[in-house]
Amino acid sequence: xxxxxxxxxxxxxxxxxxxxxxxxxxxxxxxxxxxxxxxxxxxxxxxxxxxxxxxxxxxxxxxxxxxxxxxxxxxxxxxxxxxxxxxxxxxxxxxxxxxxxxxxxxxxxxxxxxxxxxxxxxxxxxxxxxxxxxxxxxxxxxxxxxxxxxxxxxxxxxxxxxxxxxxxxxxxxxxxxxxxxxxxxxxxxxxxxxxxxxxxxxxxxxxxxxxxxxxxxxxxxxxxxxxxxxxxxxxxxxxxxxxxxxxxxxxxxxxxxxxxxxxxxxxxxxxxxxxxxxxxxxxxxxxxx
Length: 289
Fold this sequence. Notes:
By secondary structure, the chain is mainly α. The protein has a single domain (66-288), classed as Orthogonal Bundle (MetI-like fold), CATH 1.10.3720. Helices cover 77% and strands 0% of the residues. Helix 4 (114-129) packs across helix 6 (148-174) and helix 6 packs antiparallel against helix 8. The two termini are 32 Å apart.
């Protein structure tokens, strides 16, 4: 079947209309989740640690428990809201640390070249080869349960994701004439890199960081599910899923289903934003070239 030019234009217009709607919905959900975690002490209908064995495994909508209760009678909605704080802040810490490390290593490798580039690139390849979750489990075995060591280890494990992208884009940008013109004007290499090259690389860094955030959220939730992350009585979505296993076997899946849906939707929305940013940047770069 052959499409005429007007049909192709109409199809492209429909695609452009769909993408902003998806982007708006994903952004709205992430803003809602972030506000929910930030304002949980004010908005949560119950204390996240308030137990009531008489209301254990109550179904959604029972006596003010909109999402039901868990096996100890704690309100699921309140724990999901309070758990959003740790579930989002911990991956954010991973992304910020890996962003700083990856950007610095990628720019240094691209601008220095030669043996410096070779050593840094091989180092990133070695770190990239190790499974991130295995490294986190090893860190917990050495330093004990908690979030500090896993955040630091994951940041190191995710550094190549950003560093390799930054290096590639910085090499491409470095070949453009405008950087050479700044050198001819007498600007130092550090000033050219930080003030003129970095702003052009920054959009790619942001897009890659959005994708890394989703991976970090899943890794940290998996760690909490294994009982190696957040320590009780604090809650995050991974630990809630782990604690709900017995309730699921008893035919009361809501205490584990709700945090599982929260993890799934958050990762999907973050990945949609990352892909949209990456696609927009690629489109702009292709138009420029």
